[in-house]
Amino acid sequence: MSRIPVVSTKDAGLFTKFVYRFARRRYGAVPEPFAVSAHHIGLLAAGAVHELAVEKASRTLPVNVREIAVYRTAVRLGCSWCVDFGMMLQKHEGLDINRLKHIDEYATSPYFSSQERLAIAYADAMTTTPVTVTVTDEQVAELEREFGRKGVLELTYQISLENMRGRLNSALGITDQGFTSGEACRVPLPGLA
């Protein structure tokens, strides 16, 4: 149970009901971060527009590289909601989620490509606090050689965004919701149906 209760469908305004309907179609249920954010319509709208814009713009990196970096960030932050949701997204992209149990051994595991290893190491460096001493010029240069400047910017943005999501969810007590319990999220939130 989150620290701030969700806004139920019956208590939601027109815009929130639209967001909930869109989320249900897309994910099978309303993600709890949406339902908690619905207490502040301006931030719900800003977050929804931002997420959709970032999704549309993020086309430079291979999907497996982007998703594994975001997933690793969620793991490092300990955001169970983000881990759960991230696994579902990877599953929907046709990626092997069974390999995720080997994420801590990514540097030597045959389950991860060299590109994925670079992205995971960068996610680790960016998620460590303080970041000023962990991300190196050499690391960014190697990423630029592999993915180009546009790819480095996309990777950096995605990892930064996941840091924000994970810290927000943690502060609000939002935990896993059951997204990976089936083919898609089929677990509706109480009071939202």
Describe the overall structure.
This is Carboxymuconolactone decarboxylase family protein. Residues 183-193 have low confidence and may be disordered. The protein is 60% helix and 0% strand. The chain has seven helices and no strands. It folds into two domains: 8-57, no CATH class; 61-177, AhpD-like (Up-down Bundle), CATH 1.20.1290. Helix 4 runs antiparallel to helix 5 and helix 4 runs parallel beside helix 6. The chain has helices at 14-27, 32-37, 41-57, 63-77, 80-92, 114-127, 137-172. With 193 residues, the chain is mainly alpha-helical.
Keywords:
193 residues, mainly alpha, AhpD-like, 2 domains, 7 helices, disordered C terminus
Structural class: mainly alpha
Helical percentage: 55-70%
SS strand fraction: under 5%
CATH topology description of the largest domain:
AhpD-like
List segments where confidence is low: pLDDT < 50 over at least 5 consecutive residues: 183-193
- Biggest β-sheet, characterized? none
Distance between the termini: 17 Å
Q: How would you state the average pLDDT, rounded?
A: 92
Q: How many domains is the backbone divided into?
A: 2
Give me the Rg, rounded: 17 Å
Organism: Amycolatopsis pithecellobii
Protein name: Carboxymuconolactone decarboxylase family protein
